[in-house]
Amino acid sequence: MSTAEPPHSEQKPATGAILAPGYTFTTLTDKLASIALSRRTPKSWFFGAAVGFVLTMVLLATITHLVFKGVGIFGVNVPVGWGFDILNFVWWIGIGHAGTLISAILLLLRQPWRNSINRFAEAMTIFAVSCAGLYPLLHTGRPWLDYWLVPYPNTMGMWPNFRSPLIWDVFAVTTYATVSLLFWYVGMIPDLATLRDRAKALWAKMLYGMLAMGWRGSARHWHRYETASLLLAGLATPLVISVHTVVSFDFAAGIVPGWHATIFPPYFVAGAIYAGFAMVLTLAIPLRKIYGLEDFITMKHLDNMAKILLATSLIVAYGYAVEAFMAFYSGNVYERYMMWNRATGPYKHMYWALIFCNVLAPQMMWFRKLRHSIPALFVMAMIVNVGMWLERYVIIVVSLSRDFLPSSWGLYKGTVFDWSMFLGSIGLFIALLFLFIRLLPMISIFEMRVILPEAKVEAKEEQA
Amino acid sequence: MKFTVDSRRSTGVDIGAARTKLGELHGREYWRSLEELLETDDFREHLHREFRVPIDSGVDRRELLTLMGASIALAGLTGCTRQPTERIYPYVKPPEEIVPGEPLFYATAHLHEGYARGVLAKSYEGRPIKVDGNDLHPASLGGSDVFAQASILNMYDPDRSQTLTERGQIRPWSALLAAVKLTLEQERPRRGSGLRFLTTTVTSPTLQAQIAAVLAELPDAKWIAWEPTGRENVFAGTKLAFGQELQPVYAFDKADVVLSLEADFLGSGPSMPRHVRDFVSRRRAETMNRLYVVESTPTLTGARADHRRPLTPAAIESFAASVAAGVGVGGISAGAPADAFADAVAADLKSHAGASLVVAGETQPPAVHALAHAMNAALGNVGKTVRYVGSAADTPAAQTAALAELVGEMADGRVSTLVILGGNPAFNTPADLDFGKAMQKVGLRIRLGLYNDETSRLCHWNVAEAHALESWSDARAEDGTVTILQPLIAPLFSGKTAHELLAAFSAEPEKSAHDIVRDQWRGKLPGDFEAAWQKSLHDGLVDGSAFPSRPVAVRSFPLDPRASTLDPSLTLLFRPDPTIWDGSYANNGWLQELAKPMTKLTWDNAALMAPATAEKLGVTTEDVVELSFAGRRVEAPVWVMPGQAEGCVTIHFGYGRTRGGRVADGTGFNAYALRESRTLWAAPGVEIRKTLRRYPLATTQHQHSMEGRAPVRAVTAAAYLENPGVVAHMGEPPPGPHDTMYPQLPRGSYAWGMAIDLSTCVGCNACVIACQSENNIPIVGKEQVQRGRAMQWIRIDRYYKGSLDAPETFHQPVTCMHCENAPCEVVCPVNATVHSAEGLNQMVYNRCVGTRYCSNNCPYKVRRFNFFLYSDFTTEIKKMVNNPEVTVRSRGVMEKCSYCVQRINRARYAAEKENRPIKDGEIVTACEQACPARAITFGNVDDPESRVSRAKAEKRGYGLLVELGTRPRTSYLASLSNPSPALAPAEEPEKHKA
Amino acid sequence: MAQIFHRSTNTVSRVSVFGAVFFLGLLLWLFDALNRSPYTTQQGVARVQPVQFSHQHHVGAMGIDCRYCHTTVERASFANIPPTKTCMNCHTQIWAQSPELEPVRESWRTDASIPWVKVYDLPDYVYFNHSIHVAKGVGCETCHGRVDRMPLVSQHPTLQMAWCLDCHREPEKNLRPRDAIFTMGYVPAGNPEEIGKKLAAEYKIRPPMELTDCTTCHR
């Protein structure tokens, strides 16, 4: 195996550029392909992967205990029937969104700067969705009967209740997962072929070969590829909106004060994109450092994402404001108390922390200086991740803890198993992600080629 | 009891701050729990705290098996596994009457403090599963209480004493007979001077006769009776007033004005259901009675009072004196301080002379009883609202003195043989007597007991006692009515009855209880014996066995000097526990997990003290304090009790068992340890020391105010009669019938509905246990209750209103409302909860996957979830108590009130087989049947003539949270009160607000 | 550059990609088939009993009425299994020494029940009531089949919920005149549909909307 380091451009990319100058098809391809193929794995990878796998074991242990003992190992009770389970489900689903948004919507909007980040953003989507999927499946009292939520001809002569938002969830989430997976995979085919061709070891050739499905880069292939990815992009785009809209129905369709609000769909979608981009940043920043990808994931990218964060944070802030206003304006005693309770009740710390994380802190993105300070961005992204988690906590737990009859009010607190399951799912996410960056091209090689100057030239020649 | 040491700085409650905050509240706003009011950290962490989690602590072998067993059961639910082959074991010779799957009912009695209350026991294939009141019995009238309802669980208690042992060795019955024979031979020469019988209060004519027979043969032998909640004050009171020991029998239905001197006649006592029924029959706006209560510690009776005043025991005495003087009882130096309240009460009583009633509680000293009797006499109530009969218990009324004498004799070694029938003297006798120590000087100790308990440990011979439902016996009610107890099942552990044990001391030692009881009544029943015997068994009472009224004449009696001297120091009050009574129900899971009516506490007792007292001591709820009295010390967690008399600390005895069984042990603290024979009910001069420890208590309700909402609507009878519409305006109006996007559900043949009258409901919890028994509701344990996972389908909400020191208290039973537009149904993904054509909100356990979405979306939060495998699928004897008509729920499914659909279906089968419609009143839900107040009515709301329709038609009817458009089928009737115009309550003006 | 894969791989891959879909479908179908098969439902599986009691002989040949043994079928939810005494009523005289009947005589001597194997075994969360079905004109044969032709009784229907619902949704299809309820091989005299409707009206059968309420069977 060649240990030859691929050429590294001396000049830093000019700010505003989405790719450092001095790259050719070859150097660029060498550099990106080498991450999966020849380049020796950095120590940090082993460290990260290890953490991921250990936490994944924690997850498995928790699930085993859960199946043996029952959902009571979690902190849920009456009145608070949903806790970390649904909370984390919504949180993960939200995180997934950025991926689809970047790959699909920005593709349709012809935003070339997306090319370097869409691949691992999509991967992130898929892993986030698989983590999210765990929760609704395991939060039920009898998980082995979850298949009853699927409409199929059965010996009971029964159908699921199509009025229930949970059924809508089943369809929304499964569709979303399927389309995202397809999109991701189809998008990877040309690069898999590249890897196949450059791989030295036979097993690698075979592996990538199979995955590449006999891609030869012929015009016919490219033509079909374009059509396919465009179609999938078209399919995925509405899903970005629909999935979290449907998820928000889980609450909006309920009568619980703090759930029953018409603003939820847009407010959830915005929140999802918000959370998603925060997570993309959280991943992109260390990755470009570890793998020296500053040339491909440039300040321009980070800057753009920071701006998106800022924008969505304002939308979310608007959501909070409207919630408070409607509570007051409705004149409804329960709505008013709900808001008052959030701000001053037993969970007030949660609420104010959420306001800080999701509304106040992001405002620093107004300053170019901060947008261009990597540490600031990273901290920012982290704050938002926490903030969005708190938001779900406030919506789900706090609303449930005090609803209509004072006599039935109660409090909720996550147990050690709630936390181990949460950490475990994070571990699963990390583990999958590290496998991905080690084995697959985390930056789309051929799409990067497109933004090379050479590509433009060719394009000109073609026209001529 | 174990304390979890808590290093957190206990912030304590600043009651002063509470008062100022309360000052801000006004109008109908009901105040909330102190900690909540002040947002203290303690409150926030109250539930947050992590406790020892037995149910979480790994999976041990037994649990593993349980879980595997359960998972097989669960697998069955998926429908895609084969059913294991089951077998059917038919009778060889079919017993008459028994039809497999069809219940039979037998009339017998439940014993409370030794007195009988008629019950009907329901039995399937010879397996009793439910106990309810007997309509014909004067003390029951069909109603029951928590103890009668829960007694069935005691019978199937695996911790019951199961064998006959001598010094731990299992022995045959014959061995005991031999031992007794030997004793008798030793005792005969000395005329039985070394022989002592210790029983609880005995009202059984047969047992009394048996003991009398033995004593006749051995004249120097003695019979002592000890009941920790004994009524000796009652008898001493009548002796003081009339010169003879008499049992007062009250007729609350005839009383326009009632004054209770700490008499909890609505909350406890052998005749509680009768008293409740009579009392609430006068809680209708038109014929409203008026209740004055003075008491030291809040009771259900106090909660129903139109005027309640918390007073220390000494103050009650002087209050009684003042009222007595006011109503013209002669010979009372009205030295008691003039008291506007007392004068008003006296005036009210006088203006209803002959139709008023003064009742004194068992806990009151004889003088107060005597005063009460004197007042009734002066008011001409005797013979109208109260009559006097002989005592059903013909043991010496002065139980304490007799017990003290016995202990003395034992200590001096003058007792050679002690026979203990029932009770638990080593645990529940006054601490100063130190019964346990003294009895060890007795040569031969024979014990008949239901449990192998603290007393059994100190006895040589332990005879497993047969449960009342396993025994032939008889007993009298307070008014003398005799009920013959018949067994519904052969003794599960070959237990013996007291009759059989006493027979051992007679000429016919082998005689069976059946023969003994039967022979006792032979010739004593009117007419043909066989017919009369059968009738007595069938009706559950012996005709004409009630005592005749005795004429009484008040003598002048001295007043207790205590009356004048108010004790400044702290007074410790001893009371039986509202749910486990004197400790005899300590191993009963249903009662342990039952929220106590006033505190809503489960699984523990506490030191109840007034907010002001707690403020003085600088302690708050859950702080552990050390109570010391006469050199004895006990540690107890504090419970701040609104409405408690300042300077009084109440502790409930019955907890702190050491050999009570798996359920009882380790719960609460032993209040008997401070109880002395001199101060059975009130001990002045107790010292309280604050410790730095805290002890977590499990309560089912954390919020005690209504937050300006109107779940309970209360109005004065006057205001209601003046403007019946007032109730409707107390809350948001419901949306119109067409303000819904959901289609009107098609109506079936019937429309089931329920009405709950908050004016007659006294909050006694009988319905809660009845429901638990009828519907196989499991218990979950203290830790789970703390996590908010209690399973009872009915909960009784308790709200406070008004001042911190003397609040008004409201009780409201809440269960599934069976909404016509049920929010839970829309959100269930698998159609596990759907609406029936007849308006039932059906919960199908076997379809439920357990998303808990329905519970989240239920505005009443009446759905209960099996977070773990709460039901016992393995212990055979525990399974025997289950109602075969109701599915036993497994892990991970939701459950809730079903309107007792099994009873609906049974009635439907009967009706449809006869090709007729179901009659009104043919379906009686378990809660309705148990309710002593008949506050719950169930029936067809489409039939305008049905009882429930007539109830709902009342102007004071209202639905809970109707503004949400849920259209609940269960609705409420507003609570009415009848305050005296002479004592206009402060909040009167706001009554018309809203 | 050398080829890694042989040409045939293309076909293989195509087949496997599309085949996967059908394979998955097949698995699901198999599971469902198993679920409905007699293996799971025990439908039509003759059970070996401690005594090889032949309904064919007693009902078919001797024409004994169902109610002679199953006495409570009209009164109770449970159509009782006859006590040993019922057998002995006759078999103290006839076949008094037959070795086949030894278990019965033993039960009679030792007062121990005959451990019959349960053939119609509903899950514990299902509450079926015989008396109401009989009262409403549902014949024994409808659910139990031609027991007069069963040497050893086996389960006639699947006893799966869907089967119960079939009848609760269209009860009129399975109604008989009162006198035909205990007869085997009943043939409606005339147009079954009309007779069904007539009987449904006569028996005051509740509308399917009510008959299919969950609480009709589940509590």
Secondary structural class of chain B: alpha/beta
* Backbone CA Rg of chain B: 28 Å
- The assembly state of the depicted protein chains is heterotrimer
Q: How much helix, percentage-wise, in residues of chain A?
A: 55-70%
What sort of overall outline of chain A do the alpha carbons produce when their principal axes are compared?
Answer: globular
CATH C-level class of the domain at 714-736 and 746-977 in chain B = Alpha Beta
Radius of gyration of chain A: 23 Å
Tally of separate helices of chain B: 30
**Secondary structural class of chain A:** mainly alpha
Strand content of chain A: under 5%
**For the record, what is the CATH homologous superfamily label of chain A?**
Formate dehydrogenase/DMSO reductase domain
The CA-CA distance between the termini of chain A, in Å, is: 42 Å
Order of helices and strands of chain A: HHHHHHHHHHHHHHHH
Describe what you observe in this structure.
The complex is a heterotrimer of chains A (464), B (994) and C (219). With 464 residues, chain A is mainly alpha-helical. Chain A contains 16 helices and no strands. The longest helix of chain A has 34 residues, at 165-198. Chain A is globular and about 70 Å long. In chain B, 26% of the residues lie in helices and 19% in strands. Chain B has 30 helices and 40 strands. In chain B, helix 11 (313-326) packs across helix 12. Chain B is globular and about 90 Å long. The model of chain B is unreliable at 1-13, 22-65, 67-79 and 986-994 (pLDDT under 50). Chain C folds into three domains: 8-41; 55-81 and 118-216, no CATH class; 82-115, no CATH class. The model of chain C has no long low-confidence stretch (mean pLDDT 90). Helix content of chain C is 44%, strand content 1%. Chain C is built from eleven helices and one strand, in the order ααααααβααααα.
What is the gist of this entry?
The complex is a heterotrimer of chains A (464), B (994) and C (219). Chain A is mainly alpha-helical.
Topology:
The complex is a heterotrimer of chains A (about 475), B (about 1000) and C (about 220).
Chain A: H1 25-36, H2 43-69, H3 84-108, H4 118-138, H5 165-198, H6 202-212, H7 219-252, H8 264-290, H9 299-330, H10 333-344, H11 348-360, H12 368-371, H13 374-401, H14 416-439, H15 445-451, H16 453-463
Helix pairs in contact in A: 1-15, 2-14, 3-4, 3-7, 3-8, 3-13, 4-5, 4-14, 5-6, 5-7, 7-8, 8-9, 8-13, 9-10, 10-11, 11-13
Chain B: H1 15-24, H2 34-38, H3 41-48, H4 61-78, E1 87-88, E2 103-112, E3 115-124, E4 127-133, H5 146-155, E5 165-166, E6 169-170, H6 173-187, E7 195-199, H7 205-217, E8 222-225, H8 232-242, E9 247-250, E10 257-261, H9 272-280, E11 290-295, H10 300-304, E12 307-310, H11 313-326, H12 340-351, E13 356-360, H13 366-378, E14 386-389, H14 399-411, E15 417-421, H15 425-428, H16 435-439, E16 444-449, E17 461-464, E18 473-476, E19 482-485, H17 498-503, H18 513-521, H19 529-539, E20 571-576, H20 589-592, E21 601-602, E22 607-609, H21 611-617, E23 623-629, E24 632-640, E25 648-653, E26 682-684, E27 687-694, E28 698-699, E29 714-716, H22 717-722, E30 752-757, H23 766-774, H24 782-786, E31 795-801, E32 808-814, H25 823-827, E33 833-835, E34 841-843, H26 853-856, E35 864-865, H27 876-879, E36 894-895, H28 901-913, H29 926-930, E37 936-940, H30 947-953, E38 957-958, E39 970-973, E40 975-977
Parallel strand pairs in B: 7-8, 7-15, 10-11, 10-13, 11-12, 15-16, 16-17, 20-25, 22-24, 29-40, 30-39
Antiparallel strand pairs in B: 2-3, 3-4, 5-6, 5-17, 9-14, 18-19, 20-26, 21-28, 22-25, 23-24, 23-27, 30-37, 31-32, 33-34, 35-36, 38-39
Helix pairs in contact in B: 5-23, 8-13, 11-12, 11-13
Chain C: H1 8-36, H2 38-41, H3 55-61, H4 66-69, H5 84-91, H6 102-110, E1 116-117, H7 130-135, H8 140-144, H9 161-169, H10 192-202, H11 208-211
Helix pairs in contact in C: 5-6
